UniProtKB/TrEMBL annotation:
GO cellular component: cytoplasm
Species this protein is from: Rhodotorula diobovata
SUPFAM superfamilies: Metallo-dependent hydrolases (SSF51556)
Cited InterPro entries: DHOdimr (IPR004721), Dihydroorotase_CS (IPR002195), Metal_Hydrolase (IPR032466)
Any one of the GO BP annotations: 'de novo' pyrimidine nucleobase biosynthetic process
Record bears the keyword Transcription: no
Any one Gene Ontology molecular-function term assigned to this protein's record: metal ion binding
Keywords: Hydrolase, Metal-binding, Pyrimidine biosynthesis, Zinc
Protein name, entry field: Dihydroorotase
Length: 376
């Protein structure tokens, strides 16, 4: 049995690091979790639609995690122009992230009914500049119209992927956090400049786990056992088109576990005390894996029957090759198998909100035993 694994400067190709005190909590966790390079999402409030804002954000993150190589990204919006793409390239920005409008956290400014053709000039310039287009591969739900819902939104996005690739055959494209067998087959069928990221939680969860607790709720939603099997098979095959993008997405516990609030108030008309009920808000979409990412990924591999010899490609070499950033020497991460019961995922990470209130981020598999830890 393998009890040590050496990995070459692991790379997370999709991570959310937020803002304010939450950012200050989770940004150092990335390196702690075994990652040495991270592609960071731009869906802040407001979103990072201009190169100067993205570059300033990257500097802020770098100050919090000086040993982490930050790859910043821009938010695809109507503000983006070919000239801004050239400016972004010169400023070291490597990718542009596309969100479907209203589908996930802070995506209200994303792509809506106008579709993707309106961005053809931007995509053409990205192709010339050799930048990466990162696609959240879903379309907005239209349950009462065409029947689109969270379970088929990814598959119904795939024609957009094919069309963008047809128009811009040299544009490097990442289908982010793919969850379906259809998405896996689509990526396999396209040229080598079209790849996909896969999250550890989608290698572990199915729709049952995603719906049984708010802590398993994310976008895109985990799908059927057959879809999970396709993801596992893609990773187990060693196909370099599929690599780690954790989509680690921290939320305050009150957003993940919204509660019913009941207050005793005086009715102004009757003068009597009565209960005032505030119904829970919708649960935030997102699963937090950053603080334990590389050991957690090894654990998910073993639980899912994925050979551990595929871990190096999945967490390092495949993604680094696609982004053109070789692993630097001296940044190896060594995993060590733990003795039974010796290592459990933290139940929560506490912090003060920007308003000074106590809050917590609850990680994926909170409180569960995992069999790996970082040795060096």
């Amino acid at each position: 049995m393998v009890d040590h694994i050496s990995l070459s400067a692991p790379f997370d190709a999709h991570v959310h690091l937020r803002q304010g005190n939450l950012m200050r909590l989770v940004t150092p966790h990335v390196h702690q979790g075994g990652i040495r390079m991270a592609f960071v999402m731009p869906n802040l409030v407001p979103p990072l639609t201009l190169p100067e804002h993205t570059i300033a954000y990257a500097k802020e993150l770098q100050a919090l995690a000086p040993d982490l190589h930050i790859l910043p990204s821009l938010y695809l919006s109507s503000q983006l122009t070919p000239a801004l793409i050239r400016e972004a390239k010169q400023g070291g920005i490597v990718g542009v992230k596309s969100y479907p409008r209203g589908v996930t956290t802070n995506s209200e400014g994303g792509v809506g009914m106008e579709g993707y053709a309106v961005y053809d000039d931007v995509f053409a310039e990205m192709e010339r500049q050799d930048m990466v287009l990162n696609l959240h591969g879903e379309v907005p739900s239209d349950v009462d119209g065409d029947g689109t819902c969270v379970l088929n939104a990814e598959e119904r996005f795939l024609p957009h992927l094919f069309e963008i690739n047809r128009k811009f055959p040299k544009l490097r494209i990442v289908l982010e956090h793919c969850t379906t067998a259809a998405a896996v087959e689509a990526v396999k069928s396209l040229s080598d400049n079209v790849v996909a990221t896969i999250t550890p939680h989608h290698l572990h969860l199915t729709i049952d786990g995603a719906c049984s607790t708010p802590l398993g709720f994310c976008k895109p939603l985990a799908k059927f056992p057959s879809d999970r099997a396709a993801l596992r098979s893609a990773v187990a095959s060693g196909n370099p088109k599929f690599f780690l993008g954790s989509d680690s997405a921290p939320h305050p516990s009150r957003a993940k576990l919204p509660a019913l609030h009941v207050a005793r108030v005086v009715n102004a008309q009757t003068g009597h005390d009565e209960d005032e009920v505030a119904l829970p808000s919708p649960c935030a979409a997102g699963i937090y894996t950053g603080a334990n990412l590389v050991p957690l990924t090894a654990e998910v591999f073993e639980r899912g029957g994925i050979p551990l010899e595929r871990l190096e490609g999945f967490v390092s070499s495949h993604g680094r090759r696609f982004y053109g950033v070789p692993a630097p020497e001296g940044q190896e991460v060594v995993l060590r198998r733990t003795t039974k019961g010796a290592r459990r995922v933290e139940k929560a990470f506490g912090y003060k909100t920007d308003e000074g209130e106590d809050e917590w981020v609850i990680p994926f598999l909170a409180g569960e035993e995992i069999g790996w830890e970082i040795a060096a």
